[in-house]
């Protein structure tokens, strides 16, 4: 994986495609684990532009990876952690949790189901009750990333710098709250012995 847990800290790995943000180098950016890939990266298109009233054809901009996509990937990791796991050894997820998991993580590229699920409020009440507070924080993160995308894509090419700065602090706040709410909760893979 691209995120490792080592010595009580998360570490990023697999930086083979790392580059300066202002670089003009382009490459196929769909190199991530599908489940954690930002929707725009998967589709290779900007998805959060507001419709315009312009009477002429809009200028087409080629898609380029930006740091908001990394923030969305962090959201997908947190969401997968919540929807994949249960809170008891040998436990089974509820049918609602299974349904939501498969909508969020259908396991194939170009899934409109996944994009639609990202645009829709999380059903965190289908999770084990002890996960609900963390689920609420992850839902707030989803809302914030969508606002940041909309703000950055008001004009093309996207201007992500201001939305990113604000989003980074919000994500840190929501992740800290989710961890604090979950510090005494054990998680298990479904049907773990």
* Sheet with most strands: strand arrangement: 1-2
- Please tell me what the overall shape is: globular
Q: Helix-strand pattern, N to C?
A: EEHHHHHH
State mean pLDDT (0 to 100 scale). 82
Q: Unreliable runs, pLDDT <50, ≥5 residues?
A: none
Largest sheet: 2 strands, antiparallel
End-to-end separation in angstroms reads 24 Å
Gyration radius (Cα, Å) is 18 Å
Helix share bin: 40-55%
Compact overview of the structure:
By secondary structure, the chain is mainly alpha-helical.
What descriptive keywords fit this protein?
mainly alpha, 193 residues, 44% helix, two-stranded antiparallel ribbon, globular
Characterise the protein shown here:
With 193 residues, the protein is mostly helical. Helices cover 44% and strands 4% of the residues. The protein has a two-stranded antiparallel ribbon. Helix 2 packs antiparallel against helix 5 and helix 5 packs antiparallel against helix 6. The two termini are 24 Å apart.
